[in-house]
Amino acid sequence: MTDTTHAPGELDLHLINEGRHEELWTVLGAQVGDDGTSFRVWAPNALEVQVAGEWAGWDGAAHPMTRLADSGVWHVHVEGVGVGDQYKYRLRGADGQWGDRADPLAQYAEKPPSSASRVWRSEHQWGDDEWLEARSTRQPVDEAMSIYEVHLASWRKHYSGELYTWDQIADALVPYVSDLGFTHVELMPVMQHPFGGSWGYHVTSYFAPDARFGDPDGLKRLIDRLHQAGVGVILDWVPGHFATDEWALARFDGTPLYEDPNPQRGWHKEWGSHIFNFGRHEVRNFLYANAIYWLEEYHADGLRVDGVASMLYLDYAREHGEWSPNVHGGRENLEAVQFLQEMNATVYKRVPGIVTIAEESTAWPGVTGPTSDGGLGFGFKWNMGWMHDSLNYVSKDPLYRSHHHGQMTFSLVYAYAENYVLPISHDEVVHGKGSLLRKMPGDRWQQLANLRAYLAYMWAHPGKQLLFMGCEFGQESEWAESRELDWWLLEHPEHAGVHAMVRDMNATYTATGALWGRDNDPEGFQWIDANDAGRNTFAFVRRSPGHPDLVCVANFAGNPHEGYRVGLPSAGTWTEVLNTDAEVYHGSGVGNLGSITAVEGEHHGHPAYADIVVPPLATVWFRKDA
């Protein structure tokens, strides 16, 4: 029943051949029509291709596919097949072997451990027009951004251990995040992956949302509801490597089609996965079309790109002799660089107001530089250096922190080299690293105080913020994807206090333009005192035109500092807008009775000063009254 009347047009095939089809999902995969479904798959080296489905008892011979000219695309139209029907492609590869494969462009997949693709057509009617219109005029680098990172399968679970559905997640997550005041959520990979223990980072179906939570429209409803509540959505995206399952992308047409055929480039021995062939333009097309798909079809506000460092370097996780240099004799993966530049340039052009964020841990120059200047073109880069240094500092007993003072100030040496996100992510609270709370020294009161002080210091530091779920209430146990967070801790006032502090901190942060309006401009930050190692104290000013200045004083010593003279930008009243030691947060209640008064007189290089009380293991924010 081969029918080429439903085949892609010549322009589509030409663009696919050239690797320039930006809407690949509208042409390949299962395309539902009024009289059935057209199946189209790119398998240039296959000798024969069939579509096998439940509607024909999985007999692929009933529906052989036809190769369209020299495109490498195979096609068949099957009448009577509609939304929800299951299918796979049956291919006789270049090696002569038959094998069943899921559809690389499937927009819906079977729930694992089943692995068939499913026909899909969205019926969702979006209600976030106001959000999208406002987003198109924004520049995220100049906006407030506090991100709540979520692993949906373990954020909450039913008592039975069963996963929440998309709608149940929305019912719980939307009001929770809105109440806490986070501007964005970042969802760890929602693309279909067969093994939950990979947390979504070993993907098998790049265009299909995780079927364990329900059908694809459920994810759209979740994003829609977050947008209508004023919360942006960033999706984790994994273009560097893919899962090895034989029914997915691996040796798709009997050859290493999606993976690099050179094992020195095509196999990630650290992660046990295949690396995409970035030198093949059809593969780059598959990936950047996938990026566009999530941004346009699912209205995502950004993509956090996983493992960028592993893509950039040919010697990443390889010993001497396990890699070969590029054409210039260097260790840079020039094809991966080209892909990242193409992807970023394309998505920023097509979807104004979105953001891409690189998880990149090296000193690669220009990660957030414009592609026109040779940069990679990302909007932001994770500041892994700040994360490692600051966590190392706060893990020390206060008695020894003075010897490590520079770990908290060094980040300001390079703070404006890139546009940064400060990440306390899932990677820092798993695999024996312990929870964020348990990294802190001392008894439980001191651990909680350290946590509150650290978060407020982080929120005042230049850069956007990302916090993994559970850290907002002092999760005690290390994160495990197999169980939900320890929500019962919120019944304890000391943990409820951390939660309340994060809520108030986010509200003050978003209302204080000085904390984010010049995140990437050295004029937006000034040290008051960076050198008070003896008292484990840091003081600085944040500023932005049109907004009142904010002063942050952080004391990581176990004792309060009374009569602490601090230089200030101007005389007058400064309101204590945040004090992490407040009794309402289960602190000791040491503070400045709501405000301080600065008088004229030079101190710390500033024209005014005040003598203040700095609570123990606490961060205090002061905002200048108009």
TrEMBL record:
Its EC number is 2.4.1.18. It comes from the Bacteria. Residues 149-505 form the Glycosyl hydrolase family 13 catalytic domain. It catalyses: Transfers a segment of a (1->4)-alpha-D-glucan chain to a primary hydroxy group in a similar glucan chain. Pathway: Glycan biosynthesis; glycogen biosynthesis. Catalyzes the formation of the alpha-1,6-glucosidic linkages in glycogen by scission of a 1,4-alpha-linked oligosaccharide from growing alpha-1,4-glucan chains and the subsequent attachment of the oligosaccharide to the alpha-1,6 position. This is 1,4-alpha-glucan branching enzyme GlgB. The lineage of its organism: Bacteria, Bacillati, Actinomycetota, Actinomycetes, Propionibacteriales. The gene is glgB.
